[in-house]
Amino acid sequence: MGEIIQPLLPVHDLRKGGGVRTYADRLVLDSVFCVLRSGCQWWMLPRDLMPWDAAHRWSTKWRRDGTWDRVHDELRCQVRIRAVEDLIAAQSTGYPTGSKSLGVRR
Known about the structure:
Layout: H1 2-5, H2 25-38, H3 52-64, H4 67-91
Helix pairs in contact: 2-3
């Protein structure tokens, strides 16, 4: 999933004032997904992830600038593409319609 989401994340521009980034994008994503998956509070993030206040700050920043909307739209498109591919593969199996169906034989 990282190769799908990575191009959608904002690029950190050092010329605009910030310093060197302390946390990698992957660590931010892992922290946010941990909160979403487990349903825990931000302050209960495991210690092997980033501090909860930094993870919350990045998540809020990405929500405000539309990053999460772009990620959601791209993932939804990927799911729809795969659903169509699966449908096409299922329709092209080549079985006769009546010979594999269950039910009453006439």
